[in-house]
Design goal:
With 331 residues, this protein is of the alpha+beta class. 49% of the residues lie in helices and 12% in strands. The protein has eleven helices and nine strands. α5 packs antiparallel against α6, α6 packs antiparallel against α9 and α6 runs parallel beside α11.
Length: 331
């Protein structure tokens, strides 16, 4: 990898490498390297070749950087650098994105405080109220098919005993959640905004108490209140899985500086807020079964993510009622 990154740095006038590139943790789908050159420090993302084979993968990456650049005057963020009018560089059938290096870090429970939640609520409100429009980006359709969970169970039974046992145990509840999501889509799709769509703590870097939003590749249209629920779930959850009312109030209070949350059907919003987790679960089940990606490491990571996502679904299913009560009190 050193040779490829060294050639990349020279070709795009980033300087010569001063030491071996260091792979940094955090990327679940792609690989990120910290690169020191004679001209500065950079983060170079090596995009997953299996993902980039998908028909819309490249256009999604390009759109993500269009969105981040439209928002850079409203919120603090890290966007990919331009090279000859391109954010995504293709070299020798491989794809790269290059960023200026930020010496910050992501934080997770129990480090997350009400201050951090306030900052995230304000950022989310600014993004949702921006009214972005990108001609080449399409709104989400108001429906999708049920994921084929039963087919995955059958395939797991044929060759992945551990995945089979996990799916078999939770299949009924997963299918019920998926059906509920699909039932509520039409109502929520009537209002959509362009947003980040993956404001997990891992996608926020903090430096001197200032948040910088990173990893915009999931950017696209979403119902703002559906994303609000997802962000609440990411940021106000304590280490033991419970919710913090103090953090909830901080995040929602800052969000409502820009966004009105009255006259919202919160039952439907909460019902559909499982969609992101279900999509991530389906993708990782396919990885675990060898239907997505390639290699044993990919399958192992898919299985680990499947287990973790099912735990998160169960946890959130039991706590959604708490969010509903707190939102009703707030409204």
């Amino acid at each position: 990898m050193r040779e490829k990154l060294e050639q990349l740095c020279i070709k795009y006038d980033l300087g010569k490498l001063e030491k071996d590139p260091e792979q940094v943790s955090g990327g679940l789908l792609h690989h990120m390297f910290h690169v020191h050159t004679t001209r500065g420090e950079y983060a170079i993302k090596v995009l997953n070749p299996d993902i980039m084979k998908r028909p819309k993968a490249l256009s999604n990456m390009i759109h993500s950087e269009i969105v981040s650049n439209l928002l850079k005057d409203r919120v603090s963020l890290i966007a990919a650098k331009y090279f000859k009018g391109m954010h995504v560089i293709e070299e020798d059938v491989a794809f790269y994105m290059i960023y200026d290096w930020l010496e910050g870090r992501s934080i997770f429970a129990p480090e997350i405080t009400a201050y951090h939640c306030e900052q995230m609520g304000r950022i989310l409100g600014k993004i949702h109220s921006a009214g972005l429009s990108v001609d080449s980006m399409k709104k989400q359709e108001n429906s999708r098919d049920l994921y084929d969970w039963k087919l995955y169970l059958q395939k797991a039974e044929q060759g992945n005993a551990e995945c089979y046992e996990i799916l078999k145990e939770h299949l009924e509840s997963i299918v019920d959640l998926d059906k509920a999501v699909i039932a509520g889509f039409e109502e929520l799709s009537a209002m959509q905004v362009i947003s980040h769509r993956d404001l997990d703590p891992k996608n926020v870097m903090w430096k001197d108490k200032q948040p910088y939003i990173i990893d915009w590749e999931a950017a696209g249209y979403v119902n703002p209140y559906q994303e609000l629920i997802e962000v609440l779930n990411y940021w106000i959850t304590e280490e033991d899985g419970s919710y913090s009312k103090e953090k909830f109030d901080a995040l929602l209070g800052a969000y409502t500086e820009c966004m009105n949350i009255s006259n919202v059907n919160w039952d439907t919003v909460l019902q559909c807020s499982f969609d992101g987790m279900l999509g991530w679960l389906e993708y990782n089940v396919k990885r675990a079964l060898g239907l997505e990606g390639s290699g044993s490491d990919e399958q192992k990571e898919g299985l680990n993510q499947t287990k973790g996502t099912i735990c998160e679904l169960k946890k959130y299913d039991s706590q959604a009622a708490v969010l509903k009560d707190w939102i009703n009190e707030y409204v």
